[in-house]
Amino acid sequence: MRTTRLKAGAVLVGLVLAGTVLAACSSGSGGASGSTTTTASSATSGIKAAVTAFLSGQGVQSFKYDITKADVSTTDSTWAYFFVAPVHADQADFQSFYGFAQKTGGSWKVVSSGSSEVGCPPGAAGNGVVPSAVLSEFGLTCPPSTTTTTTAATTTTAPPAATTTTSQQSALTAAVTAFQTSEGVPQSKYLVTKVQVSTVQSTWAIFSVGPSTTSKATFQGGYGFLHRSGGTWSVASFGSAEVGCPPGAAGNTVVPTAVLAGFGQSCPTTATTTTS
Is residue 119 within 8 Å of 102, Cβ to Cβ? Predict the structure, then answer.
């Protein structure tokens, strides 16, 4: 679900955070729209203070954003979900993101944040693994791991990764660049870090963008999907999480369920995806 510049997705220029940016989930709020969690005001204050401290450490001024959600998990009260969105005046240069804070020793601390797959294994500095039950409570899932199972009779494997030719890669990258240019984002700000055609339906492809070396403090990556129509690739959906998920909107075309699954993506369980 895109949340700023493209309504159902997120703006590119903003904040570089840990956590991957090539996958599913923000959600307009990272997938948390289905949660029924309620949070006491004291807990809310503590979570927001932790998020503010985290962003201050990243050099982000507090007047640029609003912390629109700060909900303690009902599954495990030592975990909390939060969502950050730009204030109206900064919608052009700050991308929404979401994350999780953990309470240890009586204090809240941000342990995972980003635009998608936040809190998913294998985890890394700034992207601590969040219990699966907590993720599920907020309507979030991690992509399935690729595994191979061998038996005496058969061998089954997860679907193979898509192979993208050099010519396809050039066309896809050009489409992403054209999209970013139309949104007023200079090429010097970002790098197209991934373009891959679907093996399920070859008219769909996934892409991701990240900050250039000189823009790591002011630009957060995102991901999206391209669609080929009439022989031409164009960006159909882009954002920070739940990209391509129903109900869809301008700039966030619903992507076929099979295509999403082929890239390890999924939509919140409360959503109904398309099959064509």
Answer: no
